[in-house]
Design a protein that fits this description.
Length: about 220
């Protein structure tokens, strides 16, 4: 993966997991867990260094030793969710299944993520920050670019006759479909009767997307 443009300050890097002793690492991890709870319970309105420090029982200056900015805390909460998804994507890309079966495995993994209330909610909250925060917006753009290009790589392995641009278009549409379902069905929202059997319909729709010709603009 290429280096993200939205990097945190050198102080945050110095306080990263690799540079901490055992007690410091425990403190850092405890802060991340508290921050996750604050974000899930109160959303972006209550997510501040002051609130996280108060809930963690430490001073703001102590918190800022580990996370100098609110964005640094937010990234520590959300990045594991994204990195886990990208890791599972790469596993789908690199496993020993035939290429078309790898695409199916990726779609099935996306469905599982949609039904994970915590990861869905954390993702939504991060997106809400990206709307108002330029650095979050750049980070979100980087993640989507990585995801789109790796999905396109998987599609091209399954359908080598497609051009690189065609695969990127199909990957973008596939991601948009799963994003839309995430917003409709994720985060523990009330399930509707018409969503029963939706998984199979989604897989059929994705199969059509992957196999149908895309008409170029005139």
């Amino acid at each position: 993966m290429r280096k993200k443009r939205g990097t945190v300050s050198p102080a945050a890097s110095e306080a990263g997991q690799g540079g901490l002793r055992a007690q410091g690492l425990r403190t850092r991890n405890a802060i991340v867990e508290v921050a996750k709870a604050v974000l899930l319970e109160g959303g972006s309105l209550e997510f501040s260094l002051r609130e996280v420090a108060a809930r963690a029982g430490i001073s703001i200056s102590n918190l800022q030793y580990y996370f100098p900015t609110r964005l640094a805390v937010l990234r520590a909460v959300v990045e594991p969710v994204i990195e886990t998804y990208l890791s599972e994507l790469r596993s789908a890309v690199n496993n020993n299944l035939p290429p078309q079966e790898r695409v199916i495995a990726l779609a099935e993994q996306s469905l599982r993520e949609i039904k994970n209330p915590e990861s869905s909610a954390l993702w939504w909250h991060f997106v809400s920050f990206a709307v108002i925060d330029e650095e979050c917006s750049r980070l979100l753009d980087d993640w989507y670019e990585t995801l789109t290009r790796e999905v396109a790589q998987l599609i091209r392995a399954a359908y080598p006759a497609y051009s690189a641009a065609d695969c990127l278009h199909r990957a973008t549409i596939l991601i948009a479909i799963t994003d839309g379902l995430n917003y409709q069905l994720g985060a523990g929202r009330r399930k509707r009767s018409y969503t029963r059997g939706l998984d199979a319909k989604l897989m059929a729709a994705l199969d059509c997307l992957l196999k149908a010709p895309l008409t170029a603009n005139p």
